[in-house]
Amino acid sequence: MLSTVNRSTVRFGTICALTAGVGASSMAISKMPLEKPIQRIKSAYAHVSLGLATTGLAATVMYQNGFTNLLIRATPGTFFVGSMLVMVPTLLGIMFTDYHQNPVQKYLLWHGFNIFMASSLSMVGFFGGPIIGQAALATAGIVGGLSLVAFKSESDTFETFEGPLGIGLGGIVACGVANLIWPMPILHNVLLYGGLIVFGGLTLTDTQKLRRQAESNALFDPINESLGIYLNTLNIFIRMVEILDKLNRSGKKRR
């Protein structure tokens, strides 16, 4: 059962990799008082927190009610294709729905996306509560620390790494697809550890982009600006769950 969950975890990381780091379109630039960017940043992070809470709660309900057992019976290819058919249109719908003109539609799509992501996240329930709790704390420390570093750095310090990170993200996606067809330990390790590095880097760039958008845009969409950090956080969390599980199992073997 655990090996099945590990493969599902990798598939989830691949799915998220296809969408992480997507930025909102730029708008007109205008000057604004210092308080406004801070309020905007707080609003974006509130949406990150609410999105993660919604996904976590929905994942818990799905796991406790047996829905996750149905998901793990699907073949990797079926799971991947089905996920993409639902996730990509929903994500695009969120990105291109105007937050100020159609807020109800925007929030309905956003909540639907968060709940859909829970279907994959629910699979980590098989790893057990202690591992999940440790991974959540580790993820909070990683994302919080990287965000703080990005905010305290010069505005374009990490945005210059967007190109290399984009290439790395493409490599993660390619490895994920290849791992579905030819499962190999080396591909799995690239997805696990390489993905952790890539999504950590994307957290830095997405945080600086959020700050820039908050400071310069005439209009601000906290949902669009929160999506990148939300997806990065989920990807880091998924990988931390598996890394901690590996460390736990290796420790037991030594005893």
Task: Please describe what this structure looks like.
The chain has 255 residues and is mostly helical. The protein has one domain (2-15, 30-249). The chain is 78% helix and 0% strand. The chain contains 9 helices and no strands. It has helices at residues 2-17, 35-64, 67-71, 76-96, 103-121, 129-152, 162-181, 185-216, 222-254. Helix 1 packs antiparallel against helix 7 (162-181), helix 2 (35-64) packs across helix 5 and helix 4 (76-96) runs antiparallel to helix 5 (103-121). The longest helix has 33 residues, at 222-254. Mean pLDDT is 81; it is low at 1-32.
Helices and strands in order:
Elements: H1 2-17, H2 35-64, H3 67-71, H4 76-96, H5 103-121, H6 129-152, H7 162-181, H8 185-216, H9 222-254
Helix pairs in contact: 1-4, 1-7, 1-8, 1-9, 2-5, 2-8, 2-9, 4-5, 6-8, 6-9, 7-8, 8-9
- Can you summarize the main beta sheet? none
Distance between the termini: 23 Å
User: What is the chain-wise order of helices and strands?
Assistant: HHHHHHHHH
User: What is the C-alpha radius of gyration, as a whole number of Å?
Assistant: 18 Å
Helices, by number, come to 9
State the secondary-structure class. Answer: mainly alpha
**Shape, per Cα inertia axes:** globular
Give the beta-strand count: 0
Overall mean pLDDT stands at 81
Number of domains: 1
Proportion of β residues? under 5%
